[in-house]
Structures are given as structure tokens and as C-alpha cells.
Amino acid sequence: MMKIKNNIILTILILSFKLNAQHLKVGDSLFAMGFYNKAIENYSLSKEHIREYKIAIVHESNGDYVNAQKNLEKYIASDSLNPLVNFMYGKTLLQLKKTKPAIYTFEKLSKTIENPTYYYYLGLAFEQDINSIMAQKSFKRAIDLDDFHLKSNYKVALFEMRAERWDKASVIIDKIIKLQPENIDFLSLKAQCLYGKSDFKNAKKTFEYLIELNFKEQFVYEKIALCLMKLREYQKSIETYESLMIQFEQVDNPDIHYNIGLNYGYLKNLKLAEKHFMISKELKTATFENEYFSIALFNQENGNQNKALTFYKKTILEQPEYLEAHYQIAIITDETSKDLAVKLKTFENLKAKFPDMDKKKNDYIDHRIKELKKEIHFKG
After folding, report:
1. Under DSSP, is residue 85 helix (H, G, I), strand (E, B) or coil?
2. What's the angle, vertex CA 145, arms to CA 143 and CA 148, rounded to 5?
3. Counts of helices then strands in the chain (DSSP H, E)
4. What pLDDT is stored for residue 10 in this prediction?
5. Is 274 helix (H, G, I), strand (E, B) or coil?
6. What is the mean pLDDT of each run of 10 residues along the chain (380 residues)?
């Protein structure tokens, strides 16, 4: 009798196990086909603890990180050491901007297993916590463990570029490109790094190569146009800007009009330069000191001193602390005014307003003040 009873219990257990396994299997199939809610319904029918993890995966795939966190915490409550579940938990906390718990989770994981990916995500958590020093330390530790960990190399190279340490960034970037010559992300960094180093010729070639690889983003064309301007190929720069305005529907982009204006200014076509500077001004909702300054500068270079003076003064109305505008007003006043006292006062006021200006300007102003005082003394 006892034997029959035990057999019945065993049969029930086997059937229960098969039924639970069947619920999980059906849930897996439904999830794979994209039926998320149906998958959750079937997982929920299972009595196995793994269901919490599987339901969390479905929630994460559906972008529901709040419920994903809840199910992961239910799983972790009875199995806190599962690295796969803890890794997903850490990433979920990152998505929810729960930075401190995410840092704790990835630190715990990285102490258990020295995995470069754990250190990469720990770096992301520190970034989210606005702790760039610890973030970089984590990314570099990931690279120590895997020299070609792409995402960590990217983060470190980008950090070096933002600090304008172009050579350090180049070493990292070139290492990856040597291994993956068509890696879009690192080619983009290389192009920007070359631009930062003022190697505009090679920067232009690299940006053009990105287009060949079908990376046709707006900023790539903008950088090519800027490179052309830096290389003094002004007409080609204008054509590139005009093309991208149409291609990317940027006809109302004030920055593009401003740069077209610069190109026309360098070509000494003041009419078209001023036209685009004024278009830029009209399109902007903030201040216009750059447009006014550029109109002034190109007119000054072409001998139109009165118009230059007018626009330098407009620049100062927009931005009272615009040193270069004040300085150029002093230069024009010195060249055009016949009143020595006015010239002297202009330079003295400039020196008083900007006591920390660069040495070259300061030395020139001191020289002119000294010369003007001599002239005034002799004319007594």
C-alpha cells in the first residue's frame, strides 16, 4: 500500500515538473515570436523560480524596466549569487537611472569575476554618477583585461579627445582601426581627432571615407565643409554647405549660413558674405555677436573702416565683454582719428577693461600708449 502511495506521489511530481517545464517552453516560444503578454502569462503558470528571470527578460525587451526590476529582485531574493541575473539587474538599474545601486551591483560582480564587460558597465554607472575619474579607471581596467574591448576603448579615446589630448586618443583609435579598418565608430573618432590636431587634409579624407562606407550623417558633411574652408578651398566649402542644406533640410540653419558667409568673406565677396551673416542673424533666437563681428572684420580687411566700426559697436551691444571687438575698435580709432587724446583714451580704457588680455595685445597697447603720450607732450 505504501509503495502504491509513493508511486502516485512520484507520478504527480513528474507530471508537475513536466507541466512547469511545458509552461516555460511555451513561454519561450511565444517570447521568440514577439507575443510578450502571452509569454508572461505562460511563464506565470510555472512554479519554477526561473520564471521570475524569464518574465524580467520579457519586460526588458518590451522596454518595461520598472517591472523588470521587480521580477529580478524576486529572483535575487532566493538566489543572490547568480551572475547572469545580477548583470541584468545592474543594467536595468542603469536604465532607470538608479545610479548608486547600479554601481554597487557592478562593483560586486567585478569583485567576484574580473570580467571586462562588468568593468565597462561599472564605468557607465560612474559616468551616470558624474564621476569621470572613476569611470575612466573602470574603462581602463576593462582594457587591461581585454586590450580590444571596443566599447571601453571608445570611451577612453573619447575622453582623451574631449581633453584635447589628441596623440593619446590617436594611439587608442589607430590600434582598433588596424584590427577593424572599417569600424565606423572609430573612423569617426579618427576624423574628429585629425580635425582637432588641425590636420584638415587627412581629416577631410577620413570623413569622405566614412561617406564611402555609407555613413552619411549630417555632421560628416559639415566637417568636410569646415575642412575645405580651413584648407582655403572656399568655393568648394560653399558648394558642400549648399548641398547639405538641401539634403538634410537645413535651409534655416543659422550656423550653416554663418559659415557660408565666412567663405564669401574670405573670397572678398562682401555682398554675399553680409547677406548670409544677416540670414544667420534673422534665424537665430539668441545673440548675434558672431555675425556682427564677422561683417565688421571682413569690411575692416577690405578698407571699409566706417562700416566695420558700426558692426564692431553692434557686436559689443550684443556682448559687452567681446574683447576682440573692443580691440579692433581701438585699432580703427588709432588709424582714422586725428585726435591724439581720443586715441590715447581709447587704448587706456581698453587696458583698464581687460587687464588680463594676452601678452601680444597688451604689449602693443602699452607701446601705443607710450607713443601717444610722447606725441601729445611734444605738441604740448
Report:
1. helix
2. 45
3. 21, 0
4. 32
5. helix
6. 41 40 74 86 84 90 94 93 95 96 97 95 96 96 97 96 94 97 96 96 98 94 97 97 93 92 96 93 75 88 88 87 91 88 88 89 91 80
| Residue where the block lists cell 559639415 | 222
CA distance 198 to 229: 12
pLDDT of amino acid 48? 84
- For cell 505562460, what's the residue? 42
Phi-psi region of 284 (alpha: psi -120 to 50; beta: other; left: phi over 0): beta
**Residue 103 CB neighbours (<10 A):** 23
Residue 47 φ/ψ, nearest 5 degrees:
-95, -5
Distance of CA 145 to the CA centre of its chain: 27
Which ranges in 113-199 belong to alpha helices (H)?
Answer: 116-128, 132-145, 150-162, 166-179, 184-196
Q: Which residues contact 140 (CB under 8 A, 6 or more apart)?
A: 152, 156
What global pTM score does this model have?
Answer: 0.76
Cβ-contact 25, 48 below 8 angstroms? no
- Which residues make Cβ contacts (< 8 Å) with residue 223, sequence separation at least 6? 191, 192, 195, 203, 207
